[in-house]
Amino acid sequence: MTNELLLKKELFQGKPVYDYRGTMLDVSRHFFGVDEVRRLLDVMYRLRLNKFHWHFSDDQGFRIALKNYPKLEEIASKRSFTAYGGFLKKKFRDNTPYAGFYTEEEVRSIVSYATERGIEVIPELSMPGHSSALVAAYPELSCSGEKIEVPGDFGVMDNVLCIGNDDVMRFMDKLLHTLVDLFEAKTFHIDFDEVRLTHLKTCPKCQAKMKELGTARVEDLKLYAKNFFRDSLKKQGLEVILYNDGMEEADTSVVCFHWDSRDKLGERTVQWINEGQQTIIANCEYLYMDYPYVWTPLKKTYSFNPVLKGVAKPENIIGVEAPLWTESVEGHPKLAFNAYYRLAALAEIGWFGEKRRPYKEFIKRLRENEEYFFGEKLNIPDRILNPNLFRRLRMTKKSLMQDMNCEFREVEKFYFSKV
What we know:
This protein is of the alpha/beta class. It has helices at 3-11, 34-46, 70-76, 104-116, 132-137, 166-183, 198-202, 204-213, 219-235, 265-274, 284-287, 298-302, 332-352, 359-374, 382-385, 389-401, 406-414, and strands at 20-26, 51-55, 57-58, 61-62, 78-79, 82-84, 92-94, 98-99, 120-124, 187-189, 239-243, 255-258, 279-281, 317-324. A hairpin with a 7-residue loop joins strand 6 (82-84) and strand 7 (92-94).
C-alpha cells in the first residue's frame, strides 16, 4: 500500500459527520490564477473537503470574462489602486493598476478538475450589495446611473443595485443564469449580506416599487429581491444559499450560511435551525482564515463546535466552511500560511465532529505529513500558530493599526519553505 493510500485509510475512516465540508476563496480582492486554484483543490481533495465556494465578484473586481458581457472584462476586472495597512487603518495605497479574470474556458476547466476530485463548485454572485465592480461596468444598474470606478478600498460600499428598476432585475437574472449554465451549477450562493439601503430610500423607482408592494419599509425591497432570485433559481432546480445577515426571515427553501453572530444574529440562526432551516456553519471568530493567528489561534479553530448553543435540532446543520477573504492575502505563500493548517483543522471538525483527536495528536500528525497534505512543508512555529498573551496583545495592535501581514513577514523571512 502506498503512503498516500495508507494516510487516506488511517485518517478518514467511516462516514463523515457533516456532508458539507467546504472552503471559500475570494478572488475579487486579490486574484488567484488557474494553477493556484487547482493547487487549492488538490489540498482540499487530500483533506476530504468536498465543497469549493468560489467568491468571484465583489466591490473590488468581477473576475469572470463573459462573452455576452464584454464590460465585465474591460472595466469590472480592473482597478487603479489597492489599499494596504492595518485592519482598522489603511496606511497607504499602491497605485499600481490591478487586474485579473478567468475566461469561460478556464472556469469550465476548473469545474471539471474539481469534479474529478469529488468536489462541488458553488459559485457566488454578490448582489444587491458588494456590487461596485458591476456598477462600474454597467452604471445603469444603480439607482443614480452615475459612472464610478472599481474601488481599491475595502469595506462595505454604498453602490447597491437598483431593486426598484425592473430592467435591473431582468439584467441580473439573465446574468445569474448565464453563470449557472457556465458552472453547470447545482447550488448557487446569491449573497444578500451587508446591503446598504441609503440610495434606495431616495430613489424614485425604488419608492414606486415599495408602493407597488404595499410597504413603507425599504428593507422589504431586499426581501422582494431575495425572493425574486431565489424563485428564479429554484425553478431551475438549484439549491440556493444566503448569508445569515442577508435573511430577513426563516425560509426553509434556502440554505442559511451562518457567519455572523453579532446583534443577536446568532440567536436568530439558532431559532431558524430549530425551525428546520438547513444551515452551514462558518463562524467568523473561529473559521475565517484571513484573520491573523493572534486573533484566531489554530487551537481555537480546532476546538470549534459547529452545534451552536441552544440548537435542539443539530441534524439541520449540514456542514462547516472556512472562508478565505483576501483583502490582505496576495500570492501563494500568504494563502498557504493563512489557510492550510486551518483547512486541516476544519477537515477533522467536518469528518469527526466531537470525536476528533486531541489537539496535540492532530498537530503532531499534521507536522509529520504536511508535505503530503499541502505539497510543501510550511514549518510554521507554534509561537505563531498559538501565540502567548504578550504576543497576542502586541501583534493584535500592529495588525489592526499598521500591517495585517505582520506575523506572516516573520514566517516568510525565517521559516517559510517556498515552493
